Amino acid sequence: MDKDQSTELLFDLSQPGRRAARFPAIDVPTTPVDSVFGADDLAEESPPLPELAEIDVVRHFTNLSTRNMSVDTNFYPLGSCTMKYNPKRNERLASLPQFADLHPYQPDATHQGMLRLLFDLEAMIGEISGLDAVCLQPAAGAHGELTALLVAASYFRKSGQARTKVLIPDSAHGTNPSSAHLAGFDCVQVASDQRGLVDMNDLRAKIDGDVAVFMITNPNTIGLFDHQIVEIASLIHEAGGLMYLDGANMNAILGQTRPGDFGIDLMHFNPHKTFSGPHGGGGPGAGPIAVRGMLEPFLPTPRIAERDGQWRLDFDRPDSIGRVRSFFGNTGVLVRAYCYIRTHGAEGLKSVSTNAVLNANYLLSLVKDFLPVPHGDRCMHEFVASASGLHKSRGVRTMDIAKRLLDRGYHAPTVYFPLVVPEAMMIEPTETESKETLEQFADVLREIIEEPAELLQQAPHTLGISRPDEVRAARKPVLRWQAST
């Protein structure tokens, strides 16, 4: 076949009569379909499924897989999303039939091991966070945000307080205001100062008796640890509010400090970023939340409890906000997190954050001379460079650099976020990349910036698609295959 199979659909490769398997003729009595179903229940003709040999199907999907970028095949310096390599050992352990073959409707007595594992995972996450109680039920980080804010809302209602506002820094992840709005709060933005940290004067001006929660990511999205965090927590607590931590960047502080110790009252984790698990492709994910003791009664049900030596799911929680996820959440992702934490142990988790911060600072030192980093010579797990100067002098934008990196075999960093940095390029190497990989990436980045502007503005040049109309794709997506007429 002259055509590139990896660019075609299975329907395009279909040939009439071709089969992956041929079954022997039926040698037992059969019942006509129309005697079981009524005529109105039957299709007029068979669905137009592709007809292919097994080798055609295998080659098609294998070829497609080689066109994908992945952490297994490419360096992913994707800031904010922590796209680090995750050990295959955890994949294997989570796939053991003792875990994977459990059914959520089984009686509690038949999955005692899983319940004990999840109970222990709650305890470990509680210790890592420095908080008193953990719920594993939320299905993603943003879902954890929403769940925690619903817990906060119930807490204030129970205490007779009608607090309506959530304060959010202007450098926050976009999910923060979205979650606050869905939880019924009004969002108030707090400005950043020239250092990229919370502007304390602006914060003080916006604190009043209506403030329910202050949501902060620390380290923040610029890659800086806000050393004002204890003072911020004190101001919010004095006003009767709660401190929420977006745990997306926990990979930077594992084992170094605990959010509960610097004033956080509730937070979520992203296991796929911090504790191992598949990331991308739409899930499944998980977003465990951790809270202080006074918020524990409001956590979703069911809760895992031990009674008479048996582990069980406890639904008798009168102040609970109720279930936020079917069954007990995405337990396959949670098993991976458990295996990751147990494999590393306390010292191992500390080394994860140590090396994540070391890698980020080393890469920053390699690129800052030709790609300015507006907020300093030091960072935590990630840093935000800016192509603003290139845009002004040569018309080269951050998107042009990102697209050209695809030609060189690298996934692009996060671009145009956070919004407080013009022409932003957020870069996070994670702890799992080698010194050589970081040096090669910096060299390629330098080479790209020195290339002609016209070459960059038309990149990528080696992929099947160059620059699709992203606005049209978002507004008028084609989500299913349609047979040609």
Structure write-up:
This protein is an alpha/beta fold. The chain folds into three domains: 5-66, no CATH class; 88-343, Aspartate Aminotransferase, domain 2 (3-Layer(aba) Sandwich), CATH 3.40.640; 354-472, Aspartate Aminotransferase, domain 1 (Alpha-Beta Complex), CATH 3.90.1150. 36% of the residues lie in helices and 11% in strands. The chain is built from 16 helices and twelve strands. It has helices spanning 10-13, 54-66, 88-94, 97-100, 112-129, 141-158, 175-182, 200-206, 229-238, 271-274, 331-367, 388-394, 398-407, 435-449, 453-457, 470-475; strands spanning 133-135, 165-169, 186-190, 211-217, 242-247, 266-269, 289-291, 303-307, 310-314, 383-386, 414-415, 424-427. Strands 1-7-6-5-4-2-3 form a seven-stranded mixed β-sheet, with helices on both faces. A three-stranded antiparallel β-sheet has the order 10-12-11, with helices on one face. Strands 8-9 form a two-stranded antiparallel ribbon. A hairpin with a 2-residue loop joins β8 (303-307) and β9 (310-314). The longest helix is centred in the last third of the chain and has 37 residues, at 331-367. The protein is globular, with a radius of gyration of 26 Å. The model has no long low-confidence stretch (mean pLDDT 93). Its cofactor is pyridoxal 5'-phosphate. Keywords: Oxidoreductase, Pyridoxal phosphate. InterPro entries: GcvPB (IPR023012), GDC-P_C (IPR049316), GDC-P_N (IPR049315), GDC_P (IPR020581), PyrdxlP-dep_Trfase (IPR015424), PyrdxlP-dep_Trfase_major (IPR015421), PyrdxlP-dep_Trfase_small (IPR015422). Belongs to the GcvP family. C-terminal subunit subfamily. The glycine cleavage system is composed of four proteins: P, T, L and H. In this organism, the P 'protein' is a heterodimer of two subunits.
